[in-house]
Amino acid sequence: MSSDPASIARPDFPIVRRGYEPAAVDAHLDALAHEAAQDARRPGSDAAALGAQTGDRVAEIVEAAQRSAEGIREAARVEAAAHVADVERAAAALREHIVALDAELSDALEDLRARVGSAAEHMPAAPRESAAGDEAATASVVPDQADAEGARIVALEMALRGAPRAEAERYLAEHYDLPDRQSLLDEVYTVAGA
């Protein structure tokens, strides 16, 4: 092996993952060291100059590898920070949406409670037996029998308190004049989950 500068700075190391293969670099440096040692034993050789050149070149290689590694680490830090920021923005938007939905649901429940309470005031009391053992007293009729919305609220209140559909149907038939009682009951019992 020659000890001239071209052989010391040879550019043909195998490249592996953004750098040189360590085993190839080690083998090359071992060969240089061996050659430098032989030159040092020869009279009149300039082993000191050759050693300095080799040391400078090795220092350049190490410095380039460190710069490359730092660049890769910095790029990874920037990418991770951007990803975390994206996730935080999405989480904040989701929290705002949940708060808005919760407020809408609270308003809707309050409205439903008010409507059911109003309709319940118009519902007749359960029939009771007279003291003489007569048949049950007849329940009073809701003032506006044609009011489909009122019938819907009454049916919903009955469904929510667990009344069977047949009982709700009987009550609506007695107190409301509805063109399509079955559809109304289908809708109410579906909403109530009964």
Describe what you observe in this structure:
- This protein has 194 residues and is an all-alpha fold.
- It folds into 2 domains: 5-85; 135-191, no CATH class.
- It contains 6 helices and no strands.
- Helix 2 runs antiparallel to helix 3 and helix 4 runs antiparallel to helix 5 (165-175).
- Mean pLDDT is 76; it is low at 126-145.
Q: What fraction of residues sit in β-strands?
A: under 5%
How much helicity do the residues have?
A: 55-70%
Any idea what the radius of gyration is?
Answer: 46 Å
Q: Compute the number of helices.
A: 6
Mean pLDDT: 76
Which regions are unreliable across 5 or more consecutive residues at pLDDT < 50? 126-145
Number of DSSP-assigned strands: 0
**Coarse shape:** rod-shaped
Largest pleated sheet: none
Indicate how many domains the architecture comprises: 2
Structural class: mainly alpha
Distance between the termini: 93 Å
Order of helices and strands: HHHHHH
